[in-house]
């Protein structure tokens, strides 16, 4: 492909194609978009993060897509978001205002080893690809591997389980890289981790029934974001804390980010409910990304308007 | 390459806490090779589970015996994956 204009956003793509897209986007937008490699996966693949920035020393907004490799609509939506940001900057007043005050960080393929595996060997692979000593089963659920209630209820200690938490918190390089990045940055103000497919917008906590101290505000913002999302195609979302809306889950991403002081910590479950699961047809990628973008904008705008 | 011929994805609707507990028991049967896409947690949420062909009879018998309602969400997972692959290749060819 010659440019990101030629990229087919309405189709699923391999890891190489997505990485080429990232490089093209950087090349086409010098001084605005850059690529940061925050680490390497277990199999040695770069953990690429796109940085959208219009100035120095800005606070940051983080978005990651596809920590669970089989959730293909998530990585595909992330690619669409990247293009949307460069298209709308200086055209959309709200996004421009956000980008004049904040950097946006976007990790499109959070689990590249797993994603590659879904394209080559097992379409239904969810976890990382690190072997587990003493077991023939491979991989850790990277959304149970964070240092927030790690090892508690709602995660498995069995390496063969799809929700295996790993031997210790941050044992997975894909998780550790984000942890190191967030800590070293020090000014991430919103953190959105995107999954699919059960149509939910969730906030902390997952590992405990104790409400987080900002629950009232996070709940209202979730309502606003979901309302914006539904306004496009009337897609119905549930929202609430992880433990009350879906299930108890320990060692989850946004519980850790919230405990680090990132107030606006959310996780999405994108389309679909009850028809295709992880095999969502490609013709639903753009509608999914479009509606999700409205919710992301609501969260980013609220973060901008409510500095802390 | 792992294939999923004959695997079905069932959408199970539990009516009460007792049925949720039965589904949790089912999920602990490792020999069935079940892959829960949505776990049994609460009656307000559906349970989606990928069932390998060899376990279909056992799982359906279990659900039937306990009168737990289910529908077939995906009839043959590999068919859908093949369709996805066709779409990807076709789109690339067009491009």
Describe this structure in words.
The complex is a heterodimer of chains A (308) and B (95). Chain A has helices spanning 15-28, 72-88, 93-99, 112-120, 173-185, 215-233, 242-245, 253-259, 285-305, and strands at residues 33-40, 46-52, 60-65, 103-107, 188-196, 200-203, 238-241, 264-270. In chain A, helix 1 (15-28) runs parallel beside helix 2, helix 2 crosses helix 9 and helix 6 runs antiparallel to helix 9 (285-305). In chain A, a hairpin with a 5-residue loop joins strand 1 (33-40) and strand 2 (46-52). An eight-stranded mixed beta sheet of chain A has the order 1-2-4-3-5-8-6-7, with helices on both faces. The model of chain A has no long low-confidence stretch (mean pLDDT 97). Chain A is an alpha/beta fold. Chain A starts with 14 loop residues before the first helix and ends with a helix. Chain A is globular. Chain B is 41% helix and 22% strand. In chain B, strands 2-3-1-4 form a four-stranded antiparallel beta sheet, with helices on one face. The longest helix of chain B is centred in the last third of the chain and has 18 residues, at 77-94. Chain B is elongated. Chain B starts with 7 loop residues before the first strand and ends with a helix. Classes of the chains: A alpha/beta (308), B alpha+beta (95). The interface between A and B is medium-sized, with 25 and 29 residues.
